[in-house]
Amino acid sequence: MTQNGIVVVVSVSIMNGDEVLLIKENKLLAINKWNFPSGRIEYKEDILDAACREVKEETGFDVKLTGTTGIYNFISSSNDQVILFHFTGEITGGSLKIEEDEIIDSRWIKVTEIMHFDNNELREARVIRRIVDRLLNQKVHSITVFNNQLCKRI
């Protein structure tokens, strides 16, 4: 969702043990950039539902949101003010199917290895590094800070 140059975005670290799923984007402002599954919240959409929808659209997986690393406010490379809600999640169903128009690759990677990526390989590297730092230091809050609603089936 965009309003007056403010973009509201959700992203999800899909966890599997000490690994996380990254996707390689092929979007206009993020060609060949690694990121967590993410996207804009649609008008009147619940934040938690948006996070689950974006994961499903970009990866094919159904997820259960398990926590949040927080809310990040930054100016993007396209000069928009972004408010990003970042979650952690676990796969509950589906299978890996990347949408080849906007996503060109995916990779399970140890969380620690993300810190070794060059900044130009990551979309919004400063923010991704802050998220990874919180994941590594187990600074993940309960999902109940938002509410107890479960994701709707998409």
UniProtKB/TrEMBL annotation:
<keyword id="KW-0378">Hydrolase</keyword>
<dbReference type="GO" id="GO:0016787">
    <property type="term" value="F:hydrolase activity"/>
</dbReference>
<dbReference type="InterPro" id="IPR020084">
    <property type="entry name" value="NUDIX_hydrolase_CS"/>
</dbReference>
<protein>
    <submittedName>
        <fullName>NUDIX hydrolase</fullName>
        <ecNumber>3.6.-.-</ecNumber>
    </submittedName>
</protein>
<feature type="domain" description="Nudix hydrolase">
    <location>
        <begin position="5"/>
        <end position="130"/>
    </location>
</feature>
<dbReference type="InterPro" id="IPR000086">
    <property type="entry name" value="NUDIX_hydrolase_dom"/>
</dbReference>
<dbReference type="Pfam" id="PF00293">
    <property type="entry name" value="NUDIX"/>
</dbReference>
<dbReference type="InterPro" id="IPR015797">
    <property type="entry name" value="NUDIX_hydrolase-like_dom_sf"/>
</dbReference>
